[in-house]
UniProtKB/TrEMBL annotation:
This is DNA-binding transcriptional LysR family regulator. GO terms for molecular function: DNA binding. It comes from the Bacteria. It holds the Pfam family HTH_1. Keywords: DNA-binding, Transcription, Transcription regulation. Belongs to the LysR transcriptional regulatory family. Residues 6-63 form the HTH lysR-type domain.
Amino acid sequence: MTTGEPNWDDIRIFLAVARTGSLTEAARHLQLSQPTVGRRLRVLEGQAGARLFDRLPNRLQLTALGQALVESAGSMEAGAGALARRLRQSAATGQEPVQVTATSSVSLFVTTHLQGLLAESGRVIALGNSRAQANLARREADIALRMRRTPEEGDLAARRIGRIGFALYAARSYAQHHGLTPDGSLAGLPFIGLPKPERSPSQSAWLDGVARQGTILCRLGEVFLRHRAVADGLGVSLLPCFLGDADDRLLRLGEPVPELAEEVYLMLHAELRRDPGVRAVAEALAGLFRRERGALDGTRRG
């Protein structure tokens, strides 16, 4: 057992390991090296005088003591986040970028309208593209645009701002070559799949079901990669309507699939609703999604 007060960095590392169950994932999340994470975790365990994790073959599992410490550590984290927000609001000069995080498809949509968004909000915007949950309570982002209302930690405000429709698309040249028409047969065609589904229902599982009429040629995770592959005539795939309908090279093969539509929620920490810059960006985003509703859900072409 070692003496001394634990420092906040060690607590932060402990929480990251507890949430990911992995030194490697915690290190990636914290942008530290794995040896550093392991060393600081051992220091904390030395101060506790006991192990905080059981080392299992493929993951780290909290011990009873580690589990008991998670709640207290989470309270410390929430307090540190509140302090950071107060300091930020006090020292704001109006030039700090507002941090926005979103999935790749939503980020792509926002980027295509970025010029108007910047002009309307009057703020610098830092847009991050990630499927991972950037924790708003820990100030990893000011605003999160989520598909479905995803639970997060802390006192958060959320509102639905739009819906994204998805449909099948193929390149017009490809469709002409194969005699493919909207609502026509897809038998024997190659498909560009999504990553292998881990759950059902899902967009990936739905597309795999449709692709039984043909073959899965490849699987591409990012929407911009599928868009490029479809435009290049590689095969048929599922794309968000705002992207497929706006590309004159592509032909939509049927109406948007109702069960695949994704609700978009704007989420931010409740305290940040009083921040003029964050509020301006949030309102500009909500306005953008409202104006482009038809393009997003596929009821308006182009």
